[in-house]
Design brief:
With 241 residues, the chain is α+β, with helices and mostly antiparallel strands. It has 3 helices and 13 strands. The strands form 2 sheets. Strands 1, 3, 4, 6, 9, 10, 11 and 13 form an 8-stranded antiparallel beta sheet that branches. A 5-stranded antiparallel beta sheet has the order 2-5-12-7-8, with no helix packed on it.
Length: 241
């Protein structure tokens, strides 16, 4: 009886120790909000927001960040309209970007890539990954205007959508003009910017007559002020060769 009991205890101790080891591994390989995991550090990822300041950002055509952009819920938060669009201090060419976003009820915002300051607005030449309350915002009648879409160009699938007020994850990769976007782990677009499919889609969009749209070879990452409360955290970028 004691032998059986000892074997049972030994087996359960092994399970417990194994569980502790797995938990320890998970903690060391993942990261808290606005931090890099050991794996991300080894892979060359860099933080664009550390949870404490917005030193790597500024307003479009301005040297600093408007005070309506605040840090709340460990995130960069547009607290009121009039904060202006944000953009990274640096420009990027080939890169991977990932971040988490949350939008208020009936809210609208966006993530810009390849943004410049040559036009009147941040969106004059930049490509936008849409952020939207798909159920309540009035700009929900066109599929390519829903969250995770390349705005007015390529629509995201319904499986990529979450309710307003929930955190969403976005991954963007552009390398040698090949643009890939995922939202909540679901691929929303994979396309060659400037290729035939892209040009055909642009020709059917609002951007068909916009001079310089999506022509930049490098640019800033941008976050939109669409007058609605929005939150961004875990903003990380990895430059590609």
């Amino acid at each position: 009886m004691k032998t059986i009991q000892n074997r049972w205890m030994s087996a359960n101790w092994l399970k417990l120790i194994g569980g502790l080891l797995l938990s320890t591994f998970a903690m060391t390989s993942s990261a808290a909000d606005n931090q890099l995991s050991s794996k991300e550090q080894a892979q060359g990822w860099q933080l664009l927001f550390n949870g404490k300041d917005m030193s790597q950002w500024r307003n479009f055509k301005q040297p600093s960040v408007n005070s309506k952009w605040v840090i709340a819920q460990d995130a960069m938060h547009l607290s009121a309209g009039g904060g202006g669009d944000l953009m990274t201090q640096k420009q990027y060419k080939n890169f991977e970007l990932k971040l988490d976003w949350k939008i208020a009820l009936a809210g609208n915002s966006g993530i810009f890539i390849l943004a410049d300051e040559l036009g009147k607005h941040i969106y004059s030449h930049a490509v936008e990954v849409q952020i939207l309350d798909n159920e309540r915002h009035s700009d929900n009648k066109i599929d390519s205007h829903l969250s995770g879409s390349i705005y007015d160009i390529a629509a995201s699938p319904k499986a990529a959508h979450k309710e307003a007020g929930q955190w969403n994850s976005v991954y963007v990769r552009i390398n040698n003009d090949v643009l890939t976007v995922k939202q909540n782990g679901i691929k929303t677009v994979d396309i060659l910017v400037g290729g035939k499919q892209w040009n055909d889609l642009v020709a059917k969009s609002k951007f068909k007559t916009w001079q310089g749209f999506a022509k930049a070879q490098k640019g800033h990452i941008g976050l939109q002020d669409h007058s609605d409360p929005v939150w961004f955290k875990n903003i990380k970028i990895r430059e590609l060769n």
